[in-house]
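To: structure subgroup
Subject: Chain for Friday's discussion

All,

I'm putting the inputs and outputs inline so they're searchable in the archive.
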Amino acid sequence: LPTSSRPAEVGQWIKYGRSTTRETKIDKLEVLSAKWWKWWSVLAPTWQKKDDEGLPVTEERVGGDWGVLVHPGANGMAVVLLPLVWWRNKEGGGVPSDSWQRAVRDVAWVL
């Protein structure tokens, strides 16, 4: 997947061998979530509708070719999902944020 706008934490995770035991440092949740949304918007097909903030419109689905996201293996969609795990872990317990829930819904729809 393209690395343009990818959260730096993903690059660090890859740099350190995709460790499942080494904790990925998240300084500011707001920064990670904003970077993730920007990256997700960059990854989306050009035909996908976006709102005024440039985020995918999840309530209005249209069919099209999602081939731009077909990248099996270690650098595929798993790399998109991982920051969502970090994001949720950083939020802690309780009800997940609206932004995180929207992100998960959007990725789930694409998958």
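Points worth raising on Friday:
The chain has four helices and no strands.
Residues 29-43 form the longest helix (15 residues).

D.
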